[in-house]
Amino acid sequence: MLNSGRTARTAYDSIVDLPSARTRRLIILSMLATAAALFAIAVFVYVGNPRSTDLPVAIQSVGPEPGSNVLSQTDVTVDLAVGYTAELEINGIKIPEEELFRVQALNSLRYEPQEGKVVARLLPDQNCVRVFYWLIAQGASDNTSYTWCFDAS
User: Fold this and answer.
1) Pairing with 86, which of 3, 25, 146, 153 sits 20 to 30 Å away (CA)?
2) Which residue has the higher pLDDT, 52 or 55?
3) Are residues 79 and 142 in the same domain?
C-alpha cells in the first residue's frame, strides 16, 4: 500500500532523534560563518605582515626585515640558498669583502656597522641594502640584485 505523503517510520527513527530541518540549517550557517571569519582573519594577518615569501628564491632571509625599525648598530644579514654567494651594498656604499663576516656552513653573510668601517653606523631614518647574488658555478658576471629598506634610530 502507498503512503500518502507520509514517510514510513523505521526502528532507527525511534532510537535516534534527528534535528529538525531548521536546526540543521542553523548549524550549517554557523559553520559557514565561522569558516568565513577564519578566512578573513588569515587574510588580514597575511596582508598586514608580509614575510620572506616576497624574497627571491636564492635568498632565504634578510635582516633587518624590510620595513622594520632598528637601532643604528644593528647587523645586516643575508641568508642564501645553497649554491649561491653574494656581495652587499648599504646606502649605495659597497661593503668590502674583508669587512663581511661569512659563515660558509650556513651560506650566510653579515655586516656589523662599527667605527673604522666603510659604514660606521646605519643612517637615522631610512636605510636601503642591495644584495648582489649569483650561482657560484656561473660566476659574478651573471649576478642579480635584491633591494630592501628599513628604518634605523
Assistant:
1) 153
2) 55
3) yes
- Taking phi over 0 as left and psi of -120 to 50 as alpha, with beta for the rest, 122 belongs to beta
Do 39 and 59 reside in the same domain of the chain? no
Q: Are residues 42 and 57 in the same domain?
A: no
Please state, for a pLDDT cut of 90, what percent of the chain lies above it.
65
Spatial CB neighbours of 60, under 8 Å, sequence gap ≥ 6: 52, 79, 80, 81
Given a cut of 70, whether residue 49 has pLDDT beyond it is no
d(CA 133, CA 130): 10
Domain that holds residue 38: 11-48
| pLDDT at residue 111 in the model | 97
Residues 64 and 104 in one domain: yes
Q: Give alpha helix (H) positions in 20-152.
A: 21-48
pTM recorded for the entire structure: 0.66
